[in-house]
Amino acid sequence: MIRTILTYPNPELKKKSAPVAVINDSIQQLVKDMAETMYDAPGVGLAAPQIGVHQRIVVIDVSAKDEPPALIVAINPVIVHAEGEAYEEEGCLSVPGYSANVRRHASVVVKGLDPAGNEKTWRAEDLLAIAFQHEIDHLDGILFVDHLSPLKRDLFQRKFRKAAEEKRGDK
């Protein structure tokens, strides 16, 4: 089932998520819904809080359009090692219509559980490393715009307010 993706400034996006205690049928269904919602959007990643569920689950697929899907499901993901620096443009399904360059680690090692409950380690570089960091931030109530400099964040907020006013017909 495709779920509704919450968008900025919905306060639900700023809440921290709780670890998944038991991987049961409802978690399995949530993972399926998240993947379907991400592919439908379309996006390369989705964290459970983006659909209003505050559980530590992310789905990611950074495969190219001409490649078969390569879905990654990480339950209770934790970055256990990070190194290097990347400064790439990011967007977000919860911040539609806005993108900006964000400083991240160039590579990360993430540990978590797969949907069967098995411990898993992902070694990620480039776009996958950025996607893991972006989605794990969502689990802690952090949006990519929170990483912007105060000046860029102010520009974003002004652009957002202006777009919202135009949408309402205030201007």
UniProtKB/TrEMBL annotation:
<keyword id="KW-0479">Metal-binding</keyword>
<dbReference type="GO" id="GO:0042586">
    <property type="term" value="F:peptide deformylase activity"/>
</dbReference>
<feature type="binding site">
    <location>
        <position position="92"/>
    </location>
    <ligand>
        <name>Fe cation</name>
    </ligand>
</feature>
<keyword id="KW-0648">Protein biosynthesis</keyword>
<feature type="active site">
    <location>
        <position position="135"/>
    </location>
</feature>
<keyword id="KW-0378">Hydrolase</keyword>
<dbReference type="InterPro" id="IPR036821">
    <property type="entry name" value="Peptide_deformylase_sf"/>
</dbReference>
<keyword id="KW-0408">Iron</keyword>
<dbReference type="Pfam" id="PF01327">
    <property type="entry name" value="Pep_deformylase"/>
</dbReference>
<feature type="binding site">
    <location>
        <position position="134"/>
    </location>
    <ligand>
        <name>Fe cation</name>
    </ligand>
</feature>
<feature type="binding site">
    <location>
        <position position="138"/>
    </location>
    <ligand>
        <name>Fe cation</name>
    </ligand>
</feature>
<comment type="function">
    <text>Removes the formyl group from the N-terminal Met of newly synthesized proteins. Requires at least a dipeptide for an efficient rate of reaction. N-terminal L-methionine is a prerequisite for activity but the enzyme has broad specificity at other positions.</text>
</comment>
<comment type="similarity">
    <text>Belongs to the polypeptide deformylase family.</text>
</comment>
<dbReference type="InterPro" id="IPR023635">
    <property type="entry name" value="Peptide_deformylase"/>
</dbReference>
<protein>
    <recommendedName>
        <fullName>Peptide deformylase</fullName>
        <ecNumber>3.5.1.88</ecNumber>
    </recommendedName>
</protein>
